[in-house]
Amino acid sequence: MTRIASGPAAATAPGRTDNEGNSMEDLSDPSPWDAGYRDGARYRTVTDEEVDLLAQHLGRPIAGLTVLDVCCGTGELAAALGERGATVTGVDFAQTAITAARERCAHLPDAAFRELDANRALDELPAHGFDVVAFRLALAFLDQQEALAAARRRLAPHGVIAVTTPLAERQTDGRHHIGLDHAALQQLRTGWSEVTEYPLGSLQCLLLRP
């Protein structure tokens, strides 16, 4: 079953960029990503509205959830969820990002971070261990089929995969690669017992339930 939900818009600043606005698109080599984070790479801010909408469409509070944040960057989503009572594990293959995430979440005893390549090593994480596996601004850079299959194996019973992505067709200046196109979204929607979709400004959010 697919449900299309509506929601309020948020400011638009999708995608991870370096200080000159260049997308750090290569997820086969952590070096440019490490360099970008060292130079102050930025990405769309996690707002209270974003977390509120996630909780609303999950149908349960954030407190008490176990969350895997895939390609967590500097830990902004992990911090936002952890501060609402979730137990969060963040993974990213950029060592600089993981260091920053640990510093950002040092006040959260239930936040942990691992340097890990999401394209190759998600199966190193506990099977059936997470209520939510989140791909925030990340899935377009991964092998979608492999990443989702590995994420599905990480889900606890009644778990949900949460995808937040730019839409490729809305990108300009050669930045289409940071988002999912229509065909990729159609593929993403298949094979689940329920799919919930809602907008977040220029982004599309999907909750995938096995």
TrEMBL record:
- Could you tell me which residues belong to the region Disordered? 1-36
Which terms does the UniProt entry file under GO BP? antibiotic biosynthetic process
- Key word Membrane present in the record? no
Q: Which residues form the signal peptide?
A: none
Q: Note the Pfam families from the entry.
A: Methyltransf_25
Q: Which keywords annotate this record?
A: Transferase
Which GO MF terms does the UniProt record name? Answer: methyltransferase activity
For this protein, the record's SUPFAM superfamilies field holds: S-adenosyl-L-methionine-dependent methyltransferases (SSF53335)
The Methyltransferase domain covers: 67-159
Q: What is this protein called?
A: Methyltransferase domain-containing protein
Organism field: Kitasatospora phosalacinea
Lineage of producing organism: Bacteria, Bacillati, Actinomycetota, Actinomycetes, Kitasatosporales
